[in-house]
Structures are given as C-alpha cells and as structure tokens.
Amino acid sequence: MSGITFDYMEQYLKNLIINDSTVLDEMELFAKENCVPIVQKETAKFLQFMVSVKKPIKILELGTAIGYSAILMSMNASKDTSIVTIERDPNMIKYAEANIKKYGYTDKIAIKEGECLEVLKTLDEKFDLIFMDAGKGHYNHFLPECLRLLNKDGIIIADNVLFRGMVANDELVVRRKITIVKRMRKYLELVSKDKNLITSIIPMGDGIAVTTRRNLDE
Fold first, then answer.
1. pTM for this structure?
2. Helix (H, G, I), strand (E, B), or coil: what is residue 184?
3. Which of the residues 15, 30, 59, 104 has an alpha carbon 20 to 30 A from that of 186?
4. Residue 102 burial (CB count, 10 A)
5. For the chain, which domains are there?
C-alpha cells in the first residue's frame, strides 16, 4: 500500500476503478511483470479526469517510462492535442517508442531523451498541462522551468509528492531517502507559499499536488 491513506480505504477506491481500455490493461500487466513503475490506478484516473476537464492542447510530461501516462493522457485528450515527454533512460525510451507505435500515437506523442532539467532549459513553447513524474528529488529544481513553460491558465500536476507517507511523517522516513524527502518538502513549500500560485495537495495514490497561477486581476 502507499502509506498515505488507510489500507482499507485505498483498496476500496482501487476496486471502484475499471479500465475501459485493453491498451491500459496490457501496459499495466507489462509494467507489473517487469517491475517498471507507472502511476497508481487512482492517479491514472485523476489524470484522465483532469485532461478531460482541462482539454489541454499541449501537454508536457517529465518522466516517460514505458509511455503509459502519455498514452493514457492522449487517449483522453482532443484530437488536436500533442504531448512532449522527457525520459533519460534509453531502455525505457525503446519500450515507450514501441508502445507509442503499437497503439497508434506516433503523431501525438514526441519523446525527448535526456536529463529533465537540461531538456527543460532547451524548450521555449508554452504548455497547458505539465505532468511531473520524474526525478522525485528534483521537483523543486524543475519548478522554475515548468512555470516558465506554463501557459497563464495552465496546470502543473506533480505525482508522488507524499512519497510513501515519508514527506508528511518523520517516523516513516528511511535513511537513504532523506534527501528526496527534504527536497519534496521544499517543493511543496514553494508551491504552497508562493502568493502567485494556488496549490491543492491530494492524498491520493502516492500524493498529488495540483498547481495553477492565481488570478491577480480579481
């Protein structure tokens, strides 16, 4: 279990989620059999919901893995939506490229290889939605670049922000994860205390933070 909600509650919510796509089923099975981390079921459903409501035309994803989240978002986006996704692991890129081709999303999803921060600095286009799911100890470093690339009314969705409950409870912190926990706490402080931003932190999956700019014209 994730460590951030009661086990019985988490299991109940997971049981309510039914995939409406064999594509997702196939990718989830591959991820499980090959120990590849992908978003939890609750987070996947939340992404589907946000993409359906926000209707972004341009999406940026940090952390491609096997392409699960990118394909999921593309499945629920409009036909004009394009996704740029960043991945540093060449092996993951091979899997992602194969999946993107297999399921027919080559004209919708583009993978950029490299370290997220380095790639972010090379981008100059604006995005309606940015999904952070890479380099858990570097969200605070990604933030300035993501804000630079975010449209005025854009949304940043950051996954794993409670990191197995460790971010919210010192008693759960594993020594080797101390740096990640400290940096994730820094990220949450940055997006929560910035008067120009509005952030909601949701205890779902492994913790999700949703951030948008405050309308200062009000």
1. 0.92
2. helix
3. 59
4. 14
5. 7-213 (3.40.50.150)
